[in-house]
Write a structure and sequence with these properties.
Blueprint lengths: L4 H11 L5 E2 L22 E5 L3 E11 L2 E10 L4 E12 L2 E2 L10 E3 L7 E6 L3 H4 L11 E11 L2 E12 L18 E5 L3 E10 L5 E10 L5 E6 L8 E3 L2 E2 L8 E6 L3 E9 L17 E9 L13 E7 L4
Antiparallel strand pairs: 1-18, 2-3, 3-4, 4-8, 5-6, 5-7, 5-9, 9-10, 11-12, 12-13, 13-18, 14-17, 14-19, 15-16, 15-19, 19-20
Length: 317
């Protein structure tokens, strides 16, 4: 996961993706609070228990009015210090976008073997994730990364992920889209992409195309690019080319074993939308889409892409 951080930064700088959002901000819905409250069963769930660190999720709440977890951490030996980073990477199998992950980013010095405890609110996923089959959080995946120091020297480093089940593992439910209400764009042993439909933002300033991307193979991280200026991709609405500079174009990343809900936004001030008042006025869209191993990021690697072509869509609802 660390090896892809630089590529994420480079990609973000190149495309300046400020208006698109991971896990579908434009999608309606709320995954919390639609059902009666059920007591979370999380109690002292170990994330790490090695010779250096004891890191646990002591409790978790996933109610509409309280979406939080309490973690504890301590070093196993006196005189050690630790840099700890931890955040929620996915809920019900759907990756949470980077800015919604609420990393703790803690630096603890001179622990002397004492346990540190903190409660972290992660209610942002209430808005970030939607369209889940079950209207409650049943699986929370944590990413952790720690470095232990002694006398200013690194004595151990570790990172990993761990799934926590608020209602027990038997109640775990992973998001799957209704393919009858979408269009499968690409599907092989490693990756699946479904177009879930399109809509306009409430203020009418953006036209949003919504996708589901599933990384189900052996590639550590899949990248998805659509209508990007960086890759010289095009989009045509009812046969007319969209010409506005894609400063908010869509490149996203989905780690192995997870899926992503991704909304690519287009500026409705572009002339292609002059005579369009609703999705019903759009008969066809042709849009460039690319799928690739994030390690192959860049124009010079397009011959290695998994998929790189125009896609024709004639049903947007």
């Amino acid at each position: 996961m660390k090896k892809n951080i630089l590529k994420r930064i480079i990609a973000t700088m190149l495309i300046t993706a400020t208006a698109v959002s991971m896990t579908g901000c434009s999608f309606p819905g709320n995954i919390l609070g639609k059902k009666e409250k059920t007591e979370s069963k999380v109690k002292n769930e170990k994330l790490v228990d090695d010779e250096y660190v004891d890191l646990s999720i002591e409790s978790m709440k996933v109610d509409a009015d309280d979406c939080s977890y309490t973690y504890s951490c301590k070093t196993k030996k006196d005189g050690q210090s630790i840099i700890l980073d931890m955040y929620v990477i996915a809920v019900n199998g759907v990756m949470v976008k980077d800015e919604e992950r609420m990393p703790i980013g803690q630096v603890f010095d001179d622990w002397d073997g004492k346990k540190k405890t903190e409660t972290v609110d992660f209610s942002s996923v209430n808005d970030a994730l939607s369209k889940l089959d079950e209207n409650k959080i049943t699986v929370v995946d944590f990413y952790y990364d720690y470095t232990v120091y002694e006398d200013s020297e690194i004595i151990n480093e570790a990172e990993g992920t761990k799934s926590i089940y608020p209602y027990g593992e038997k109640e775990a439910h992973y998001y799957k889209p209704d393919e009858n209400n979408g269009k499968v764009i690409f599907d092989n042993d490693g990756v699946k992409v479904i177009f879930l439909g399109a809509d306009f933002s409430d203020d009418g300033l953006n036209f949003n195309m919504n996708y589901y991307i599933e990384n189900k193979g052996d590639i550590e991280q899949i990248s998805f690019a659509s209508a990007t200026t960086f890759y010289d991709q095009k989009m045509y609405v009812n046969g007319e080319e969209y010409t506005t500079e894609m400063g908010s174009d869509g490149i996203t990343f989905v780690d192995k074993g997870y899926c992503g809900l991704w909304s690519v936004s287009f500026d409705t001030l572009d002339s292609v939308f002059d005579d369009i008042e609703s999705v019903d006025d759009i008969d066809t869209i042709e849009v460039g889409i690319a799928l690739y191993d994030t390690d192959n990021f860049g124009k010079d690697n397009r011959d290695k892409f998994i998929f790189d072509d125009m896609v024709f869509l004639d049903s947007l609802r």
